[in-house]
Amino acid sequence: MAVKSFDYTTLKNIAEVISVILSHTEITQELQLAGIKESNQGTNKKDRLFYAMKDRQQQDACGNNILAFVKKVIDPRRYINKEIEFEQHRCNLNSKLLFEGIEMNKYGEFATVNKVRTISEARERSQKIKQKIHGIGVHPDALRFCEVEYLQENYFHAILEITKSVADKMRQKTNYVSDGSDLVDECFALGKERKPMLAFNLLSTPSEESEHKGFANLMKGFFSMYRNPKAHNPKINEETQLSEMMEVLVISSIIHRKLDASYVTGFK
Predict the structure, then answer these.
(1) Shared domain check, 79 and 171
(2) pLDDT tens digits, residue range 82-128?
(3) Which of 38, 69, 157, 169 has a CA-to-CA distance to 183 between 20 and 30 Å?
(4) What is the pTM of this model?
(5) Domain boundary pick from 65, 92, 127
């Protein structure tokens, strides 16, 4: 498709996306492979990319070679066994290109689409959560708690919200008000009389009791591993990448399904 020249703001946005993906050495290599000559301007990755693309676009009087370069960088074939990373890069790019009426699809091809006019619309179009996590069976109650943060790429707080979704479900089932490990103990601790508040089996055999205890320990580990460090450590020191949030979504979904199957025993 014929592509009109991008304005400088869009070129800078594209450069920002690509600068996160490529190292300085890779930028040199990829520009050469794309037939784009480097400019003498710019020392950081973003500026090197911007000035090189700007000069090539001025030479061509169109944006076709800019998109060809981007397509080679964000090529699905470069992301074998790294689907989540590909989706993250593709959606980051789309959040910039949708203002130009251009979108990269899941096959790495560009298509003309309706332009967006607001940042929120671009996020919703480029990062629709249900499209990005299809196939991994995420529980809807986990999604409900984190979708706003996810669409804003605020993975740090998304992880916190996901852990809150688990505690919220236990409170709804029991009317308890505590949190974390204390809440798990109140809901699932067997005690000497083997009479927990919640159970998902009949607790009639040692195997069923073992499964019950294992689930309680899983939830305690979940809170300790994903909620407490995120609550107490400075955000700047945390690597809250998309892949980690996906991990939390999957584990929380396992817990949610078991909680859905849990019943109030009537012992307390």
Answers:
(1) no
(2) 877 888 888 889 989 999 999 998 889 999 988 888 877 776 665 55
(3) 157
(4) 0.56
(5) 127
